[in-house]
Amino acid sequence: MRPYRLIAPAKINLLLEIIGNRPDGYHELVMVLQSIDLADEIEIKPVSGDRIALQCDHPQVPSDETNLAYRAAKLMQENFPGHGGLEISIQKRIPIGAGLAGGSTDAAAVLVGLDLMWSLGLTQEDLHCLAAKLGSDVPFCIAGGTALALGRGEELSPLTDLDQLYAVLAKYRSLSVSTPWAYQTYREKFGHAYAQDPSAQEARRRTGPSVPLLSAIAHRNGLAIAQALHNDLEKVVLTAHPKVAQLRETLANKSALGGMMSGSGPTVFALADNSQDAQQIASQLSQELPDPDLDVWVTKLIAHGIHLAPTDEG
Ligand code: C5P
Hints:
This protein is α+β, with helices and mostly antiparallel strands. It has eleven helices and twelve strands. It has helices spanning about 70-80, 100-115, 125-135, 140-145, 180-190, 200-205, 210-220, 220-225, 235-240, 240-255, 275-290, and strands at about 5-20, 25-45, 50-55, 85-90, 145-150, 155-160, 165-170, 230, 260, 270, 295-300, 305-310. Strands 1, 2, 3, 4, 5, 6, 8 and 12 form an eight-stranded mixed β-sheet that branches. β9 (about 260) and β10 form a beta hairpin. It is globular. Bound molecules: cytidine-5'-monophosphate (C5P). Cytidine-5'-monophosphate binds next to β2 and α5.
């Protein structure tokens, strides 16, 4: 058994449409999820005994069972006993509470890493089943890329790669949004308009904002993709946080393509056709909003999820 270092990419939502309620209390969704090259680095190594130890260089990330990566390790120990304990080290680069699936991708990295470290030979389907037990975004984070996600977010279909595009991300460091709060507030405000039965839900899926987006993705058309971006949770998060609404507007206006809020926010992004345009959008934004609380990243859309770090010696 040897240690493994893994890269765990963040995701942005190109689409998040809320269709209705599910019997399990979650929401029935249509999402288009996209991996980006802003990523955490995770190291896992074997230790004696059965203990799980987790450390992270970000002071606000918990190191106990409230951390999804810790729960991923525990789930693996329960399902595959006898392989001993492990130490997990997380180098946090993805902001937390940001709508970028930072916690989910770390958990996905632990599943993939333990499959390797314990030589389990799990299939993609095995990993997907384990991931779905941990959270709605964890299955996507394993293979990543560009995907359509239905159901709770765990029914995945791969889409055409968009790795020619860039995304400029912006987030106020001091601001984070709770995902359960965003969904619950949406339900309180808009639940009366939810599609009620399975056939009404299917009709809404077939006629909703995913239709133009999926066509734009199939053609790898950056402008058409940007014009078809859609996120229902903007209706609650941007209303509650006018500062984020203003940031979204400013950022989207800088891009020839357009932009949106990712997931439950509060990160907003603008798409760009190439690296120079992305750099220009980022520097214009930093000049127009010179706020020390504002973080800005230039990222590239990528065609994969969890992978071994280049520094891994295997
Ligand atoms: O699955 P996960 O733990 O990531 O979801 C976080 C929260 O987001 C859930 O507790 C729920 O409030 C909300 N959610 C939802 N419907 C989904 C996914 C998430 O209501 N399909």
